[in-house]
Amino acid sequence: MSGILSGKEIKWQIKNGDIEISPFDPELVNPASVDLRLGEMVRMYETNNSGRGALGRVALDCRTEPMTHLFEMNPTGFVLQPGELYLMHTVERVFSNRFVPVLDGKSSIGRLGICVHLTAGYGDPGFNGQYTLEVTTVYPVRVYPRMRFCQMRFHTIEGEVQQYTGNYTGGAAMGPVASRCWKQFQ
Fold first, then answer.
1. Residue 107 lies in a domain
2. Which helix (H) or strand (E) segment is 16 a member of?
3. Residue of 46, 134, 158, 160 with catalytic role
4. What are phi and psi of 15, to 5 degrees?
5. Domain membership flag for residue 2
């Protein structure tokens, strides 16, 4: 039978080596999840002349590697603006070859109108890296590097476990990583 690990079990599995969180702070463990903090780097897509979208913005093309701007947040904070997509990342690197990590927004962040991820909150066993966050907001909101921003829960798996071997490994598993959708067209 599958389920979600309790906070106590998360700590045990970290001690046992079946979950790695680096850096790990036991104070960030909740009753059924662990808080993850917001990393310092932000990536945003550049516009190009490939075609205009519905709002007069330049459209991203799924067949083309996107151009991006990468910058570091100032310690005094960064204001998220409505209508923008910010690729951000967790401070923590997370790895488990036994459990399924699932990323969720913290309720205190959601209540500010911030969406921590659009669709990619699910991790696979064997993924080893920081999690890229697809951040949007309803209102302008100032956020700060290293603040508690999201939380991760761990699910057990029934059946044979297969390890992740996708597009986001090695260096592509650290920092805010742009879409690699274009690779499927090669």
1. yes
2. helix 7-16
3. 134
4. -60, -40
5. no
Q: Has residue 45 been placed in a domain?
A: yes
Q: Establish whether 92 is a catalytic residue.
A: no
3-class secondary structure per residue, 37-96: EECCEEEEECCCCCCECCCCCECCCCCCCCCEEEEECCCCCEEECCCCCEEEEEEEEEEC
pTM: 0.90
CB 135 within 8 A of CB 88: yes
* Mean pLDDT by groups of 10 residues along the chain of 186 residues: 90 97 98 98 76 60 90 96 95 96 96 92 91 97 98 94 86 89 84
Burial class (CB in 10 A: 0-12, 13-18, 19+), 135: buried
Contact status, residue 151 vs residue 100, Cβ threshold 8 Å: no
pLDDT at position 55: 53
Note down the domain range covering 180: 7-185
Convert 161-181 to b/e letters by CB count within 10 Å (16 or more is b): eeebeeebeeeebbbbbbbee
Does 110 map to a domain? yes
Buried (b) or exposed (e) across 106-134, using 16+ Cβ within 10 A?
A: beebeeeebebbeeebebbbbbbbbbbbb
C-beta of residue 68 within 8 angstroms of C-beta of residue 43: yes
